[in-house]
Specification:
Layout lengths: L6 H20 L9 E5 L4 E4 L15 E4 L5 E3 L7 H10 L5 E5 L2 H7 L11 H6 L5 E2 L7 H9 L7 E4 L3 E6 L2 H24 L7 H13 L10
Parallel strand pairs: 6-7
Antiparallel strand pairs: 1-2, 1-5, 2-3, 3-4, 5-8, 7-8
Bound molecules: zinc ion (ZN).
The site of zinc ion has 6 residues, from loops.
Length: 227
Amino acid sequence: MGLPFSIDLYDTLGAEICRVGERMSRQGFCAGSDGNISARLDDDLILITPGGVSKGHMRADSMCVIRVADGELIHGRSPSSERAVHLAVYRTRDDVEAVIHSHAPKATVWACTGETLPVGIHPEAELMLGRIPLVPYATPGTDRLARLVADALTPSTAARLLASHGTATLGDSLESALARLEMLEAYCRLVIELTLLGRIRRLSESEMVELLALKRDVWNLPDDRLQ
Ligand SMILES: [Zn+2]
């Protein structure tokens, strides 16, 4: 019996996930076998990285296929132990095509403070990321963590920090989920360094009003604060 999905699409997405893994690895986002990457294969199935592999050295044909509805393994071996988090996002948001979980170092440093990342500091971070929910801590790989991640999702959530753990970013493509991870890491570096300096210039209320109007009217991007 043939596979219940397009093998061409599996190959294409698998190769793209490998390239994303290499880029994450080159930027120091993946110590050891840290991190996991997934992408929607069709309405019912996702591709996800196998557990315990270096993200810089993956093979496209090692990707696992699991069913969104019940998490059943359809193809491959040993899908990522964090698959429940990925599935929770796809079940909650139909528009999401890709999810990346990482322990990117600066974002993880901030996540381990257990505090919500401040906003109103840098204009591009406001436009591209907006508010970053902090998901309360739960043991990695558990359904409880997946539930907490799903609870923190709103229609405009682009990224989340997982308390004492790392990051989860999502997008309408692998490229956009990676871009958001890179921006989140850069923003966390900025906030940490400003915190160490002990001086932060906050954008004023009128500057934020103008910025959010730009986000809505010109960039056409959603933001919880515009509702
Ligand atoms: Zn993790």
